[in-house]
Structure formats: structure tokens, C-alpha cells
Write a structure and sequence with these properties.
Layout lengths: L5 H10 L11 H9 L6 H16 L6 H27 L13 H23 L4 H5 L1 H22 L4 H17 L19 H13 L7 H14 L4 E3 L6 E5 L8 E2 L12 E4 L4 H9 L19 H14 L12 E11 L1 H7 L3 H4 L6 H8 L4 H13 L2 E8 L3 E7 L11 E6 L6 E11 L2 E10 L3 E6 L8 H15 E6 L10 E5 L9 E6 L2 E13 L4 E12 L6
Antiparallel strand pairs: 1-4, 2-3, 2-4, 5-6, 5-8, 6-7, 7-10, 8-9, 9-10, 11-12, 11-14, 12-13, 13-16, 14-15, 15-16
Helix pairs in contact: 2-4, 3-4, 3-5, 4-5, 5-7, 7-8, 7-9, 7-10, 8-9, 9-10, 10-12, 11-12, 13-16
């Protein structure tokens, strides 16, 4: 007869931890819950999983290993829903929305979900570890750093002010992984992952994303840059000793961000880590050369099919520039300012307050001025449109300026429209002249948004184009056609280089989707009209088109004025 095992008896009787007061007490409970999820509704599915993670975070009775194991099951189950929601943001209708960012509400939901899962893994790691936690420290640190990287990416996409807090946690988690000797341990973050990872690689992904200056990228391209870091991080060096391959460094303390070596503080709060990107540049070039012969508008299957090849090429070129040994720097000195300003946004609002070209330039009066008033049915409606634009002016502060740009600060509540590529008009008080610019950088500072604005011109001039260049056969036919199509026929354009009549070749801003290369328009000048031809589209997006034009000739007479 076998001897009695007293140690086993005591383990069973007294050694087991008390079950938490929570519906998901065991791994088996979690698996049963998954079977009841609405698999056909990814939004509800992710919301349900996020709710379970939140309720676990609010329950202190979970033993660390139990908490971590159940969270990993929830985390694995959330991936398909996360992927489907991301695809809906990036490619609504099943095709990449190359020129338009998706629904911000989706990003906010993903950010909230990422926060709960990140908090859950952090709680499990911060409690007194047991044997299971010690055996899985590498995997848990990969998970928590992956969620921190996701939160950082989404905070840039949403222009949130969470970056400083996220960087503090990134530095802390990486240092913790180093102290536990698991920072370089290679593990599969998820069973379905083709590429394994390590805590060091997840930390590097965040460092690399920051070096790409995501505040000056469109939200969908920030996500693409983060996806690319997953392919590149394993070939990037992160060492305590400086090497020839390192062009960047980071002080892993507080909310410090990575930067070029020349900008590292002379008395850092902690020993710097040196980031060597030289060895990853060849891999970036190979990704750039791949699919070069295909149509740039085709979906890019390498990164999920939610982007076009053109977007992949654009982001890879940016990363080669920003991760190279000679990263771009501001070429003009910025002068600190503290001036009050008013800001309007959107093509139509700016066109309504820009001085008419016919009034602004000597000798350019007459019928062009008449048409400027007719574009709004009546002169009183034109005045009302200018008044409405004035009521949309948001109070702002000019923080700094250079020869080509401005730094603005606005309350977040006054700038819900702020996004990369938006046209803005800025009036620096007490001046009465509106300058025209485009938002190139957006980042948050507490309850303010900081906008980096590229100035396109300090003297925009509004002129009227006719999109119809074919004469009608009779006065009656012309009058009937004109009555039905007046607003479609005449469009405002913004001349970037004020000049007299007749027009010379110059740059002009047009409403979105109005023109293509070789499009022709009629411009009304004193004594007749002038035809111009678009020779180049410098930029075309959902907000406006930036085109270069050349004059084709001048017609003496009434032209096409009704």
C-alpha cells in the first residue's frame, strides 16, 4: 500500500488560491464565454472582450498567473475583430481609401480596447510573480509592449496627448525586461504570428515609429509605418555602446523620445541607448524595389491589402529618409512668437475671404468683378458667406514662425477639423491679410493641438474659372443651359502669385477633384477672357488640388460671361 503523501494533501487543502469573485474564474470559464460571442459582429465581439478585460482589471482578487492566462485567451480572441475593424477603417467598401482617412470613431474604439488589455497585462506583471509568471516573463513583456506600441500608434492617429505617459511606460517595461534578462528572448507573440518577436523588438518598433515623425503623417500612413517596423525591428541595433551604425539615441527615462545623436542631452537622466539603423536600410530598399513594375494604384498585398502600392512606396521612401544616417532637419530657423491669430479651414471658407483677383491687381476690373459677385447669386449672399466664414474663425496663438511655416496652438475643442493636409487661412492680428497654408504636422499637448502649417502664400487671390470652354450655337441655347448649370460651370480658384492681366504661368489651388493634367478653363479678364491649361498637378487630395497652369491665349470681347 502506497504511503500517505502529506505534502500533496496540504497543497490541495491549503495551497490553492481562492477563486476570484468574477464570472471568469478559470481558463475553462473563459473558453466557454468565447463560444457565446457574436462572431458575425466584430464590433460587438471586441466590445464584449474589452468589457471582460475591464472587469478583470477592476477585480483585485485575481492571482497574477490566473489573470495573465485568462487575459491571453481574451487577447487571442480579440485579434480577428481587431483586424476586421482596422480593415473597415483603412479600406471601407473593400478597397483602400488612399486619399481619405477612415472613421475616427473606429480608431477611438481600438484605442479604448488597447488601453484595457495593456492595463490587464501590466497588473499581472506588477504583482508578486509566481512560477508560471517567471517562466513566461518574455511572452508577457512582448504582449504588454505590443499593446503600448499600439496605443502610441493610435494616439498619433487620433492626435491625443497620451504620448508622454505611453513613453514613460515603454521605457519602464523595457528596463524591467532587461533586469529580468528576457529583453532579447525570442518568442511568438501569438500562435498565428509568422514572425516571432522579443521585448527589445517591440520597444524598437515604438522608437522607429517616433523617428519617422508620425505627427506629420496622415493617420492611415502612421499605421502603415508601424506595420513596416514589425518587418524591420529585428535588423536594428539597440546597444549601450555607441557604434558607427548608430545615428540615433534615446535616454530611457521619463517621457524622453529618440532623436539624432547630436540632439542628445549633454547631461542625460540615464545612460543613453544607441539605435543603429544602418543595417535595416538595405531591407527597406528591397521592400521598395518589390512590385516596382506594377500599377501603383493596385492594392498592396504585402501589408494586408488595405493600402495601395503607391502608399507603400511613399512610406518606405520616408522611412529611408528619416532612418538614414543623415535624417532631414529644419533648414530655416524658427523664431519664437506670441501673437494672437484667427484661423479658418476648408477650401470654400478661405475662398470666401480671399480678396478677389480683380480687385487686388491694378487694371483687372470690369466683367471679372461682376462674375465674382454673380458666383453667389447676389452680392448680399456673398457678404453673408464672408460673415459665416468669419464666425467659424477659431482663436489661436502663433508659437513660432519661419520663412516657410508657422507653429499654431489651438484648443482641441476649437479644431475638431485638424488633420494632415487640411487647408487653413490664418490672420495674424492686427493684420487684415489672410495667409494661406496647409497643415503638415498635428500633435497634442494636454488640451491643446499644435499645428505645423506650411505657408503656401501670404497673398492668396480668388478668381473665377469657367469649366465650360465650348460655345453654344444660339443665344437661347446658351441661356437655357446657363440657368441650369451656373454653379457647376463657374468655380473659385485661389491664385498663389498675385499678378495683373493677362495671366502668366503660375500655381493655383482648385476645388478637390476638379482638374486633371491638360484640363482647360476660361478666366475672365478686362475686355475679354483668357484660356489656361493645367500642366501639372503638384498635389491632389480630398481637400484641394494644387496645380500649375500655363496661358493658352486671350479672347477679346465678352467671352463667356452670361
Amino acid at each position: 500500500m502506497a504511503s500517505f503523501d502529506l505534502s500533496r494533501f496540504r497543497e490541495l487543502a491549503f495551497g490553492r488560491s481562492t477563486l476570484p469573485d468574477h464570472p471568469l474564474q478559470t481558463v475553462e470559464d473563459a473558453k466557454k464565454m468565447l463560444a457565446g460571442l457574436p462572431a458575425a459582429d466584430p464590433d460587438a465581439c471586441l466590445a464584449e472582450l474589452t468589457n471582460w478585460a475591464r472587469s478583470m482589471n477592476e477585480t483585485a482578487a485575481f492571482e497574477p498567473a490566473r489573470r495573465a492566462r485568462i487575459l491571453m485567451i481574451l487577447d487571442d480572441a480579440a485579434r480577428p475583430s481587431w483586424r476586421l475593424m482596422a480593415e473597415r477603417y483603412l479600406a471601407p467598401g473593400g478597397r483602400p481609401s488612399e486619399r481619405r482617412d477612415g472613421d475616427k470613431a473606429i480608431l477611438r474604439a481600438l484605442f479604448d480596447s488597447a488601453t484595457e488589455f495593456n492595463n490587464g497585462f501590466a497588473i499581472a506583471l506588477d504583482e508578486e510573480p509566481g512560477d508560471w509568471i517567471r517562466r513566461n516573463h518574455a511572452l508577457l513583456h512582448v504582449r504588454v509592449l505590443r499593446w503600448l506600441g499600439r496605443r502610441l500608434t493610435l494616439s498619433y492617429m487620433l492626435h491625443l496627448s497620451a504620448g508622454a505617459a505611453i513613453w514613460e511606460r515603454l521605457h519602464w517595461r523595457h528596463q524591467n525586461a532587461e533586469q529580468l534578462a528576457v529583453a532579447r528572448a525570442i518568442v511568438p507573440a501569438f500562435e498565428s504570428d509568422r514572425l516571432p518577436s522579443s521585448p527589445r523588438q517591440e520597444y524598437l518598433r515604438a522608437l522607429l515609429l517616433e523617428l519617422a515623425q508620425p505627427e506629420s503623417m496622415r493617420p492611415r500612413l502612421v499605421e502603415l509605418a508601424y506595420r513596416i517596423t514589425g518587418r524591420i525591428a529585428a535588423s536594428v541595433e539597440l546597444e549601450t555602446a555607441r557604434s558607427d551604425a548608430a545615428a540615433f539615441g534615446v535616454v530611457p527615462a521619463g517621457d524622453a523620445r529618440p532623436c539624432p545623436l547630436a540632439r542628445l542631452p549633454s547631461r542625460p537622466a540615464a545612460a543613453p541607448l544607441y539605435i543603429g539603423t544602418a543595417s535595416c536600410l538595405a531591407k527597406l530598399r528591397s521592400l521598395l524595389e518589390r512590385d516596382m513594375g506594377r500599377d501603383p494604384a493596385e492594392p498592396d498585398t504585402l501589408f494586408g491589402g488595405a493600402y495601395t502600392l503607391r502608399e507603400r512606396f511613399a512610406v518606405l521612401n520616408r522611412l529611408l529618409e528619416h532612418w538614414g544616417m543623415d535624417p532631414p532637419q529644419r533648414r530655416t530657423k524658427r523664431i519664437a512668437m506670441a501673437s494672437a491669430a484667427r484661423v479658418i479651414h476648408g477650401y470654400e471658407a478661405i475662398a470666401a475671404v480671399a480678396p478677389p483677383w480683380s480687385d487686388a491687381e491694378p487694371g483687372a476690373r470690369g466683367k471679372a468683378r461682376d462674375l465674382q459677385l454673380m458666383i453667389d447669386d447676389t452680392t448680399t449672399r456673398l457678404k453673408r458667406s464672408q460673415l459665416r466664414a468669419a464666425t467659424r474663425q477659431g482663436p489661436a496663438r502663433i508659437l513660432d514662425a519661419s520663412t516657410g511655416g508657422l507653429g499654431l496652438a489651438m484648443r482641441r475643442a476649437d479644431a475638431p477639423w485638424a488633420a494632415h493636409g487640411v487647408l487653413v487661412g490664418v490672420l495674424i492680428e492686427p493684420s487684415k491679410e489672410w495667409l494661406l497654408g496647409v497643415v503638415r504636422r498635428v500633435f497634442a499637448a494636454e488640451d491643446e493641438l499644435r499645428l505645423g502649417v506650411q505657408v503656401l502664400t501670404t497673398k492668396p487671390r480668388a478668381m473665377v474659372l469657367s469649366t465650360e470652354t465650348i460655345r453654344r450655337d444660339s443665344v437661347w441655347e446658351e441661356a437655357m443651359w446657363h440657368e441650369a448649370t451656373f454653379k457647376e460651370r463657374f468655380k473659385r480658384a485661389l491664385l498663389l502669385e498675385p499678378q495683373g492681366a493677362p495671366l502668366r504661368g503660375a500655381d493655383v489651388l482648385l476645388p478637390a477633384s476638379l482638374a486633371s493634367r491638360n484640363s482647360q478653363f476660361e478666366v475672365f479678364i478686362p475686355g475679354g477672357s483668357q484660356r489656361i491649361c493645367v500642366t501639372q498637378l503638384r498635389e491632389s487630395n480630398e481637400h484641394y488640388q494644387h496645380a500649375a497652369f500655363e496661358p493658352l491665349g486671350t479672347t477679346v470681347g465678352a467671352g463667356m460671361l452670361p
